[in-house]
Structures are given as structure tokens and as C-alpha cells.
């Protein structure tokens, strides 16, 4: 694990990243055994609550608490960043939509605000690299740079910038954990960000551009061809070293992708579960696990996005989504919808009667 970041140099940010990665612990096996034993005592045929039972056991292992006293406090961290590769004509929408949507997240009118309200979660919006000026009292400003460079012509960012974005994400997760949040969802906003996500997945998944490039916000056939070409060119121009996750992430990634990878590492280091949203979020999770393999058991997949490549990214992580709703919005919308299932899993363990207490005969 250390090898991945040792080459980052001994900057303060590099050391912070290494320390967070090192502090990720294994799941608590004893808590998991206790939760599993309790599930088998509850008035239901063993295993009959299916994936809800798996979820309950894993939550016990993540938090180290077999039966939680109350539901976890929830935060959707929406990281926003812009992408130089938009110059290649890879999105159906103009770049100014990124800051415009950030303002909507802060005003409460975006889809994620509605779904977060419905599911009892806080939306935390972070400017990690939006192009142009953005200021709002509720916006967390952690800007590393005002958007990436065009990866089809050179590195999207420097190694140091990628490390700073990762550390910004780690610190956001740590601050939220300090404030009592115990369950995180990854959300993002960044016009053009399905293109770097596809490039990262192509490299880490050993896949061709055509297998991982999809229509994103809804680009037409000509745009799809430009997008595939941009991914192929970005890989050819940058020649990322597959064995060095920071090299791949900095050359082909995005600031919000690195920031979310940091959120995942930070949450895992605090023993908090992280619900992964769609395509971009899943690629961020892949980045996090490349840097910190110990983060993987802290991940909960939410939904299967319509975006081509999402299923492949999930499979690479060994994750199975819970919902298939045909969504492809991002922002953390699919992840927020899984919060009630997580609360339900905890509620079953906490509130169901046992065969003994309810006087029900065992099979
Ligand atoms: O989460 C997904 O699976 C997803 C799939 C397609 C598009 N998006 C969102 O749409 C934007 C990226 O799309 P594009 O076409 O501009 O690359 C970005 O803001 C994402 O949040 C998100
Ligand atoms: C309007 C709009 C909202 C979004 N939310 C996440 N990505 C988005 C892309 C667009 C274009």
C-alpha cells in the first residue's frame, strides 16, 4: 500500500495521504459474527431477508458495533470540478453548467437535494476545481485548481495536484466524521467527467475505449466518436504507468474524481461506510482501492447507472448494485436512494423479536 504513495515525495499532503491509507483497519470479525448470530435468532427463516442481512453484517463489521443503537447520520458529499477535455467536444452540455448546478445544490433545488431530504441526509457541496469564481456561504471551497488541463493533449493535472485533491477529500470526510456523520455517499458534478472516468477505467480495467465510453449527459453519435478518440488520444499521449495509481489518476483523472477517492479513504479510515453512486463515483472508488486496497470492504454499491462501463467498473471492484432504476444523473442520487435500505438493515437487527422472545417455534 505504501508503495503507491511513497513516490509522491515527502510533502505534507503526501504524508497525510499515506497516514490515512495506513490507518484503514480490517472489518471487525467478532462484530460480524455477533450480528450474523443475532440475525439467525430473529423470527424469520435463516437468510430470508437476503441482501439486507448481508448489509447488516457488513455494517457491523465496518462500524465495529454488532447492533447499532440508532441509524447513522448521513451525508452526501458532492464534489464539483471542471474538465479541460471539454475542448474536444465530449459533452452534450456546456461547461458553465458545472458552477450553475453547484449554485442549485446550495439553493436546494437539484435532484440530490430532494432525494437527500427524502432520505434524511445532508448535502455537502465541495468546490474542488470548478472553472471560474464561485462563492457561497454553504459551499466548502477546497479548490486545487480551476479545472483540469485537456488530457487529450497532456496531463490533466500534476501528481502533486492529484495528491492535494485526495487529501482535500480525506479532510472533508474526517471533518464530517468529527461532526457526527457516520454514513457517506459519493456525489459529483462536472461537465465532461464521464470522459476521464472512461479513460481511468480503460487503463485499470484493461479495456478498450469503445467498451467504456458512453453517452454521458446524452451526446450524439458524432460526439460519441469524438469522445472515444479523446480517450484513446489521452492514453497514447500520457502513457500512464498502470502500476502507479497516482500517475494514472493525475494524468487521466479529474479533481472531483480524486477528491471522492479521498472521501472514500477518509471515511474508511474512520470506520464509516460509503455508498457509491454511478459511473464517475465508481471509478473514484476504483482509484481509492488502487491506492488503498483496505478501503474496499467499506464500499456499498447503490445502483447500476445507464452509462456504458458502469457495470464493468462495479465488477472490477466485486460490487453488486442494489437498484436498477435506469438512472444516469450522478450528484449522488442513486446512492441516496440506498440510505433507507441501510437504515432498514440496522432496524431489523435492532428491533425484530427473536424466536425465544416471541414464542415462535423453530424449524
Ligand atoms: O453517475 C453517472 O452514472 C452519470 C452518468 C452520466 C452523466 N453523469 C453526470 O453528467 C455529467 C457528466 O456527463 P458528460 O456527458 O458531461 O461527461 C456529470 O455532471 C455527472 O454527474 C453521471
Ligand atoms: C442539468 C445537469 C445536471 C446534472 N447533474 C449532474 N450532472 C448534470 C449534468 C447536467 C447537464
Automatic annotation (TrEMBL):
Pathway: Nucleoside biosynthesis; alpha-ribazole biosynthesis; alpha-ribazole from 5,6-dimethylbenzimidazole: step 1/2. The active site is at 331 (proton acceptor). SUPFAM superfamilies: Nicotinate mononucleotide:5,6-dimethylbenzimidazole phosphoribosyltransferase (CobT). InterPro entries: Nict_dMeBzImd_PRibTrfase, Nict_dMeBzImd_PRibTrfase_bact, Nict_dMeBzImd_PRibTrfase_N, Nict_dMeBzImd_PRibTrfase_sf. Pfam families: DBI_PRT. It catalyses: 5,6-dimethylbenzimidazole + nicotinate beta-D-ribonucleotide = alpha-ribazole 5'-phosphate + nicotinate + H(+). One of its GO terms (molecular function) is nicotinate-nucleotide-dimethylbenzimidazole phosphoribosyltransferase activity. One of its GO terms (biological process) is cobalamin biosynthetic process. Keywords: Cobalamin biosynthesis, Glycosyltransferase, Transferase. Its EC number is 2.4.2.21. Signal peptide: none annotated. Belongs to the CobT family. Catalyzes the synthesis of alpha-ribazole-5'-phosphate from nicotinate mononucleotide (NAMN) and 5,6-dimethylbenzimidazole (DMB). PANTHER family: NICOTINATE-NUCLEOTIDE--DIMETHYLBENZIMIDAZOLE PHOSPHORIBOSYLTRANSFERASE (PTHR43463:SF1). This is Nicotinate-nucleotide--dimethylbenzimidazole phosphoribosyltransferase. It comes from Cohnella nanjingensis. The lineage of its organism: Bacteria, Bacillati, Bacillota, Bacilli, Bacillales.
Amino acid at each position: 500500500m505504501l508503495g503507491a504513495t511513497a513516490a509522491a515525495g515527502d510533502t505534507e499532503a503526501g504524508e497525510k495521504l499515506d497516514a490515512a491509507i495506513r490507518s484503514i483497519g480490517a472489518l471487525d470479525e467478532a462484530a460480524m459474527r455477533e450480528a450474523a448470530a443475532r440475525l439467525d435468532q430473529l423470527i424469520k427463516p435463516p437468510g430470508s431477508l437476503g441482501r439486507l442481512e448481508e448489509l447488516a453484517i457488513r455494517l457491523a463489521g465496518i462500524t465495529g458495533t454488532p447492533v447499532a443503537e440508532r441509524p447513522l447520520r448521513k451525508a452526501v458529499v458532492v464534489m464539483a470540478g471542471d474538465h479541460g477535455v471539454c475542448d474536444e467536444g465530449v459533452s452534450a452540455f456546456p461547461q458553465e453548467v458545472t458552477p450553475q448546478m453547484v449554485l442549485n445544490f446550495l439553493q436546494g433545488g437539484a435532484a440530490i437535494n430532494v432525494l437527500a431530504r427524502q432520505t434524511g441526509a445532508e448535502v455537502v457541496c465541495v468546490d474542488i476545481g470548478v472553472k471560474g469564481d464561485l462563492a457561497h456561504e454553504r459551499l466548502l471551497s477546497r479548490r486545487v485548481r480551476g479545472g483540469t488541463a485537456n488530457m487529450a493533449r497532456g496531463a490533466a493535472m500534476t501528481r502533486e495536484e492529484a495528491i492535494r485533491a485526495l487529501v482535500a477529500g480525506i479532510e472533508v470526510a474526517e471533518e464530517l466524521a468529527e461532526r457526527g456523520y457516520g454514513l457517506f455517499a459519493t456525489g459529483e458534478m462536472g461537465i465532461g467527467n464521464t470522459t476521464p472516468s472512461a479513460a481511468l477505467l480503460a487503463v485499470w480495467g484493461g479495456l478498450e475505449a469503445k467498451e467504456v465510453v458512453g453517452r454521458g449527459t446524452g451526446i450524439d453519435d458524432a460526439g460519441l466518436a469524438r469522445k472515444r478518440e479523446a480517450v484513446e488520444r489521452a492514453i497514447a499521449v500520457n502513457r500512464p504507468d498502470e502500476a502507479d495509481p497516482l500517475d494514472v489518476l493525475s494524468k487521466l483523472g479529474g479533481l472531483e474524481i480524486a477528491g471522492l477517492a479521498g472521501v472514500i479513504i477518509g471515511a474508511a479510515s474512520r470506520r464509516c461506510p460509503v455508498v457509491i453512486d454511478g459511473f464517475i463515483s465508481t471509478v473514484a472508488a476504483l482509484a481509492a482501492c488502487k491506492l488503498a486496497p483496505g478501503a474496499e470492504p467499506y464500499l456499498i454499491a447503490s445502483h447500476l447507472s445507464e452509462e456504458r462501463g458502469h457495470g464493468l467498473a462495479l465488477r472490477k471492484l466485486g460490487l453488486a448494485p442494489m437498484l436498477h432504476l435506469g438512472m444516469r444523473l450522478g450528484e449522488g442520487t442513486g446512492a441516496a436512494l440506498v440510505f433507507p435500505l441501510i437504515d432498514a438493515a440496522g432496524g431489523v437487527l435492532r428491533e425484530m423479536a427473536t424466536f425465544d422472545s416471541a414464542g415462535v417455534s423453530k424449524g
